[in-house]
Write a sequence for this structure.
């Protein structure tokens, strides 16, 4: 080998060595980026590749690690909000699994229902329809575990319904402390559970009697709470006309509250799952649902969602509200999927869901999903007195992640496969 060949060979070796060094350096940098990316994803509490129904369910568990404290409570309490969210979560678990979700549901039932079937913090003599709703979560747990205490708890709730005070025509009072009053809320709190209880645990005349009472509640809401001009429903009706919020001639409250109507829509679409098709009231309730759907579509905002006071979009102080919007979306989407409503209403549901995403949903750096602009609470009467005026509804507290919104958001997401 001459000197020139040796020099060329040394030069090639240097070039190769330099190239190898650059390759290794870039490779290390790329690996570092990949590791950082993986590390960043692993730090997320809720993964973004999950369906929205899963993401919200896991976000709620993160926000409220104790299921007895849903609804921002300081102490455990048997309440309708727990039943609403846990029922929604049970459907997520059925579809996607995740033991964490089931354990969360079971933790509520395990802690709130004692071995003898007694329900902690519940008092039958209050005759409060709100207290029936958590029976849906207990029904689900009984289906899986067959623990006798869960059936005993449901028997207690059925016993309450048998003794619930009524109006002169048989309409359940919303609560014993609200005599002669029927609220839209109460139909959802009690009737879907009572229908599934009758279907599973009663037979013959006993079951038929329950079905008759269930259908009667819807018939009376249609008779008294529905406005024939708009097709919308007033929040409350007082047969006695004694309440300050009640019109002295009609007994009706003053406004069409979004979530009040949302409760009623979910009641319509859910009770049809359990009411026998052969019952004479089945067709009536299906017809009520169709008329209801036609009415709420007329008041859907261009954004896809709905206002707190449904028919007063342009009025100062009114706002686009999340809980009612989620309830309407669920009602329409499920109604179409189950064949209770025409296919055209699915377009409305999809527009609404898109509006919910744009108007109300945010996700933080940890992947936790929030539903914003929820009306925290609204009612009629009580102390301090709630007069049902427009000013009352728009001035109630607005907060994020109210379970009366997150539960229906999960349900709507499931119906739309989102």
């Amino acid at each position: 080998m001459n000197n020139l060949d040796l020099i060329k060979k040394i030069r090639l070796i240097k070039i190769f060595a330099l190239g190898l060094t650059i390759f290794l350096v870039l490779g290390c940098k790329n690996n570092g980026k990949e590791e950082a990316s993986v590390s960043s994803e692993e730090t997320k509490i809720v993964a973004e590749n999950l369906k929205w129904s899963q993401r919200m369910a896991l976000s709620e568990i993160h926000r409220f690690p104790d299921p007895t404290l849903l609804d921002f409570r300081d102490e455990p309490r048997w309440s309708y909000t727990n039943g609403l969210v846990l029922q929604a979560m049970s459907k997520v678990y059925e579809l996607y699994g995740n033991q964490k979700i089931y354990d969360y549901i079971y933790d509520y039932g395990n802690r709130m229902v004692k071995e003898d079937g007694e329900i902690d913090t519940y008092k039958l003599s209050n005759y409060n329809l709100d207290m029936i709703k958590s029976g849906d979560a207990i029904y689900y747990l009984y289906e899986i575990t067959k623990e006798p205490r869960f059936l005993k708890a449901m028997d207690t709730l059925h016993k309450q319904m048998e003794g619930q005070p009524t109006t002169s025509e048989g309409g359940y009072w919303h609560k014993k402390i609200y005599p002669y009053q029927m609220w839209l809320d109460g139909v959802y709190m009690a009737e879907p559970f009572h229908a599934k209880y009758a279907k599973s645990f009663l037979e013959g005349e006993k079951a038929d009697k329950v079905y008759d009472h269930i259908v009667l509640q819807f018939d009376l809401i249609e008779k008294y709470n529905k406005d024939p001009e708009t097709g919308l429903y007033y929040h409350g009706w007082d047969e006695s006309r004694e309440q300050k919020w009640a019109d002295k001639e009609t007994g009706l409250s003053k406004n069409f509250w979004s979530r009040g109507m949302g409760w009623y829509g979910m009641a319509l679409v859910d009770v049809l799952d359990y009411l026998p098709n052969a019952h004479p009231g089945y067709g009536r309730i299906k017809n009520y649902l169709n008329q209801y759907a036609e009415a709420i579509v007329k008041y859907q905002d261009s954004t896809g969602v709905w206002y707190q006071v449904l028919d007063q979009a342009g009025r100062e102080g009114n706002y686009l509200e999340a809980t009612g919007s989620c309830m309407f979306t669920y009602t329409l989407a499920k109604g179409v999927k189950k064949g209770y409503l025409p296919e055209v209403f699915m377009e409305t549901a999809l527009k609404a869901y898109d509006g919910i995403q744009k108007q109300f949903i945010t996700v933080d750096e940890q992947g936790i999903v929030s539903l914003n602009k929820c009306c925290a609470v609204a009612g009629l009467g009580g102390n301090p007195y709630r007069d049902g005026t427009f000013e009352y509804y728009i001035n109630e507290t607005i907060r994020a992640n109210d379970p009366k919104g997150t539960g229906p958001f999960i349900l709507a997401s499931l119906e739309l496969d989102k």
Observations:
- Residues 2-40 have pLDDT under 50 and may be disordered.
- The CA atoms of residues 209 and 348 lie 36 Å apart.
- The chain has 14 helices and eight strands.
- Strands lie at 181-183, 236-238, 306-307, 320-321, 361-363, 369-371, 374-375, 398-399.
